[in-house]
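Onboarding guide, step 5: your first structure request.
Type a short instruction followed by the sequence, for example:

Predict the 3D structure of this protein.
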Amino acid sequence: MPEYTITIIEDEEDIRHLLLYNLEKEGYRVSGYESGEEGLAAVRASPPDLVLLDLMLPGIDGMEVCRRLKQEAATSDLTVIIISAKGEESDIIAGLELGADDYLSKPFSTKILLARIRTVLRRSSQPLPGQEDVITIDELTLDPGKFRVTIAGTPVELTAGDFRLLHFLASHRGWVFTRYQIVDAIRGEGYVVTERAIDVQIAGLRKKLGDYGNYIQTVRGVGYRFKDV
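The system replies with structure tokens like these:
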């Protein structure tokens, strides 16, 4: 296993130490911070492979930390897993909409967290399997090797999750997928997410794509498809 680096931003000392202990035992290089300000400064100074982020932090809260990381060019591609006692559907949707790669509610199983970490690190370090060709649709271009989208040569700022969603639909033009088929394809089987979260991500992706957002069509009672052109 590659020596991945993980930054923990968690104000509860017991949980932070538990995470540090278990992750170091698994072979990860780990650092921990108790406030949003400290964690944000550390990640900016030396971006890790993954950030474990609590939401209810003193000072800058976790949502704001996630928003800043995803908006800044140097950290926008970072893998982020939110771990929080806030487990309502609206909280999960808000976290995923900001670009988090996963969301785990407290209390959580350490074994499940470790499995989620392995999954997102494996996914983020590999190109989309078997689908490495550049896709061009009119002036829309998707380059999976670079995780890059352009419209008429102008880059479109997308999260890694947005790119995977767009690439999955665009590489199966005309096919209709349910929300759960989409989740399995872009996040892996067994990932727990609400239908509403997919709807929110689709809406956000359409907005970022401008006129090309109309290529993602809603099939009422079923799910979504990318317009066959």
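Each response can be followed by summary notes, for example: DSSP finds eight helices and twelve strands in the chain.
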